[in-house]
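Reply to dn_fold:

You asked what the input looked like. This is it:
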Amino acid sequence: MRSFDVYTRPLRRSTDFSGLQTAVLFVVFALVASIPVITHPVPPLTDYVNHLARMHVIATIGTDSDLSRFYEIDWQIIPNLMMDLVIPQLERFMSVYHAGQVFTVATFVLILSGTVALNRALFGSWSVLPLVAFPLLYNHVFLVGVMNYMFGLGLALWALAAWVWLRERIWPLRLLVSAAFVLALFFCHLFAVALYGMGLFAIELRRLWDLRERPWGARIADFVATGLPFLPVVPLLLKSPTWQLAGENYWDQQGKIDGLLYIIEVYSDLVAFLLTAIAAAAIGWAARHRLLRLHPVGWLLLAIASVVYLAMPRVVFATYMADQRLPIAAAFMILACAQLDLHHRLVRREFLALLLVLLVVRVIEVDVNWAELSRETLEFRDSVKRIKRGSTVLVAYADRSAGEDVRELNLVHAACLAMIERSALVTTAFTVPGKQIMHVRPQYAAQVDTEDGTPPALDQLMLAIQHHGEAQSYWELWPNRFDYVYVLFTDEDTRNPAPELLTLVHEGERFRLYKVNKERTAVGRR
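and this is what came back:
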């Protein structure tokens, strides 16, 4: 039986590590890479806590009268459900925080094992080269907390590996397995389906060229058949409420360079520069000595991903950072297409030493910064305990421009901890129709942000005090609608916007919790 390798004519690989040695190294590096996740129950990722709060609502809404009063779960065909399907089941056996840690570590393992598996499928033997992707697990896109997308990336890598393994076997089996992966990827994230399609396009383009001596019609028919497993995506998407967001797209060419930097950039520019310099020097040395080569599929992937990246909008289906998520995914896929000659013992030792240095530096960088940011998170969790169970919580910003810096990401959705700890209604919880299955019940729908917008600033809250007409925004009638107000990104100059209506309950280093004085509000209404 001929393998895919025959058609792509891969470069011959010299002996490097055995399969068992590769597996042992994989486990060791996976444990090292997971240290920050394991040691921080609430990692400071932007959207993570918001998603985790939704998982908790899904798991407990049947037994929590307060959450069921505020929220409802409407199971729909939405291409963003993997966490919603997995974590609530895990919460039956552990806390939602531990369930989130398990899901995050599983995502890491899925991405790296998929990278190794695709490399194995392309070259026909195990290699430790894909392990260089371990330091890239911590990247700016991951810090945003788009966990379903990251999980889908790992699944897409495994789907590509399965396609290569099955390429020259019975075609119905190959198409059936591919269709199963497409279905699973759809419920991870719509962009994950696109990643798989992009990878298949590169693989099949290479095969189309390798078989150019065969009849043209048969080759084109085989090439087109690759897309058959994707056909169910069309009716699924048309039946999904996500389709209603199809027109919400936005192009922005200015952030393209940032998207490339997001591959390696995390907290420290110095560390990013150091890791990039070390990796570039190692790549240059290996290429000069003809030890490092890229599979032809990798070159095609690089070209296709570049064109797609330049053409992609910043917002697709109302999903932000659509284009900027692509470079990190392409990086893992292209690393899976790389080949390194580790025949010499000295080269093997130097490679492992370099990989260990890169990974340890990245883990230390993340762990040190997470330890510092987690002190703020713990303080925030303490403040949540002062909220009465079943309350309504408004989130506001002291600084309207805040929330963009990487060290501010931990506060953006921290108020959603009140949903987990105090069964509260929080204005910033993700409840966008077509993007989440959790919605606010009709009687509270006018009190929350259903557009993923920026919370109001303090000056807007002060202006709203004089507003007595019909509310145009969910926060305009805040003295009558909310029990507590979280003000984020405060400093020593931040003042209570309405001392007669708000009582300070907790003052943190960069946030404050106020209780709305209902008695004064009632007097004002009279």
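The beta strands are 71-73, 292-294, 338-340, 392-397, 425-426, 438-440, 484-488, 502-507, 511-516.
Hope that clears it up.
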